Amino acid sequence: MDLLARREHSYRELLRKLRQRGATTSAAEVELDRLVEDGLLSDERFCEAYVYSRSQRGYGPARLREELRQRGVAEALVEQTLSEAQWDWQALAQQVFSKRFPEGEALDATERAKQLRFMQYRGFSGFQLD
């Protein structure tokens, strides 16, 4: 409960943390299943909170997809959350680009490649410079 009081966690993330603290896998799974039944642990809620938090920091769908996969969230849930209408990824990409590169799109091929690499690192893999 102490871990959940701080922030949302995925099921697999909590299982890993409990095992690191000495709990057996079967005992940890029993307790986590009880938390899921009580509505205190939810991968859906974790996924939404994570996407909101990280997108506010300027991270795009490709990076978020990978981070959520590493945290044990189901692929279908990740895709469903990232495709919701509330996320305007193109507008966020434009905002991130203009904040990092206020001078706009570079004319030099080397600088342009640098800009594209930055956007890919941030998770906007399909981002097109205008």
Which characteristics define this entry?
130 residues, mainly alpha, Arc Repressor Mutant, subunit A
Compact overview of the structure:
With 130 residues, the protein is an all-alpha fold.
What does this structure look like?
The chain is mostly helical and 130 residues long. Among the domains are: 1-41, Orthogonal Bundle (Arc Repressor Mutant, subunit A), CATH 1.10.10; 89-122, no CATH class. It is built from eight helices and no strands. The protein has helices at residues 2-6, 11-20, 25-37, 43-56, 61-70, 75-82, 89-100, 109-122. Helix 4 crosses helix 6 (75-82) and helix 5 (61-70) packs antiparallel against helix 6 (75-82). The mean pLDDT is 90.
